[in-house]
Design goal:
By secondary structure, the chain is α/β, with parallel strands linked by helices. It is built from 11 helices and 10 strands.
Length: 360
């Protein structure tokens, strides 16, 4: 009998070990592979050949091949309106690196200080569904903002992120110097912060609440406890505290919600569309500092007909053509304000779409 008990105990231990091994293999197979965020770093720092330093105002902008002229317009507006030492991080994909360098070196931008970083789109594998009504919102560069601390910007305590459909009319140092509240990793503009824009927003049916971005039919979304009528924010312009971002593991939190949406479709079919904004709204809910509303006047791209008063736009520090109607395309409103900073592509590949003038 004692021998039989030992044999049974041994078989039981063996069965437990086998069960753990199977569970481990199953878990390991379900784990997403790790990829580096940057494929390579272009140590291209402009005509002055100066490296970035801690006293710089770092600005991160993405530049896709098809919208390269838009990104150069942003850079020109920032550079032309700032008295600070600005250092630009230009994040792109491999096919655009040579074109970006050529655009800069053959225009007035040759004097900017910059570094080109190549983003690795494989980092998004298993995290993004190709199911948006606006495919441009699924471009890999639209997710670069999730990976700020991993983008070779370790020389800076904070960084300014700008979408490629903005222009800056104020000194970017003012935005950069915003005082972040304790424990906040970023500062955004609330979608309900500027009364002057409310009438225009309502007239074009713009989404300004969480209901427009999250699918509240899903139990996991309801369990977040976020009021669907609560004001959202736009992550196309923000200031990030790199150290606080790392301490709170913001990137991992964002990736968690990307993976959840990939499996459960928590927000892909929401009214506002797109899959880059909802993870930011979830992770930063009630945990962000509010920037001066004039530093993010948005919705200029939501209607080809609805305009802001000129006096109001003149006061704005930053204009954002978020929406489908972009200022390099046509139709679009307030084109003159954007074209003021546009620099033609020296290769002629990026061109503006404008109506043909009728012959008299």
């Amino acid at each position: 009998m004692p021998l039989l008990r030992k044999i049974n105990r041994g078989l039981l231990i063996l069965l437990v070990l086998v069960a753990f091994a199977l569970l481990y293999n199953k878990t390991r197979l379900q784990t997403l592979p790790k990829y580096p965020v940057l494929k390579k770093e272009e140590a291209d720092t402009g005509a002055k050949d100066e490296k970035e330093v801690e006293t710089d105002v770092p600005v991160l902008i993405c530049a896709s091949e098809e919208r390269i002229g838009a990104s150069m317009t942003v850079i020109n507006s920032v550079y032309s309106n700032s008295q600070a030492r600005v250092f630009f991080y230009i994040v792109t994909l491999r096919d655009a690196i040579k074109k970006i360098r050529e655009y800069i070196e053959k225009t007035k931008l040759r004097n900017i200080r910059y570094k080109i970083l190549e983003f690795n789109p494989m980092v998004l594998k298993g995290k993004v569904h190709p199911d948006s009504s606006r495919p441009e919102l699924l471009h890999p560069l639209n997710f670069v903002r999730f990976y700020l601390p991993l983008l070779a910007i370790e020389n800076h305590k904070r960084i300014v992120y700008l979408d490629d459909d903005v222009i800056v009319q104020g000194d970017i140092q003012e935005l950069y110097n915003i005082k972040l509240k304790e424990g906040h990793a970023a500062a955004f503009a609330s979608d309900c912060d500027l009364p002057d824009t409310h009438e225009m927003v309502r007239s074009v049916g713009m989404q300004t609440t969480y209901m427009g971005f999250l699918d509240y039919r899903k139990e996991e979304v309801r369990e977040l406890g976020i009021n669907p009528s609560e004001c959202s924010f736009n992550p196309g312009v923000f200031v990030a505290d790199v150290g606080e971002w790392q301490r709170q593991k913001i990137t991992k939190q964002l990736e968690k919600w990307m993976a959840k949406n990939f499996r459960e479709n928590l927000y892909s079919s929401a009214v506002a569309g797109g899959v880059a904004t909802p993870p930011m709204l979830i992770v930063f809910h009630d945990k962000f500092t509010t920037i001066d509303p004039l530093w993010h006047i948005r919705h200029l791209g939501w209607s080809p007909d609805t305009r802001y008063p000129k006096t109001f736009l003149k006061k704005a520090k930053l204009l954002h053509w978020n929406g489908q109607f972009k200022p390099w395309d046509y139709p679009c409103v307030h084109l003159d304000l954007w074209e003021k900073w546009y620099i033609p592509d020296p290769t002629g590949k990026f061109t503006l779409v404008r109506p043909r003038l009728k012959n008299p």
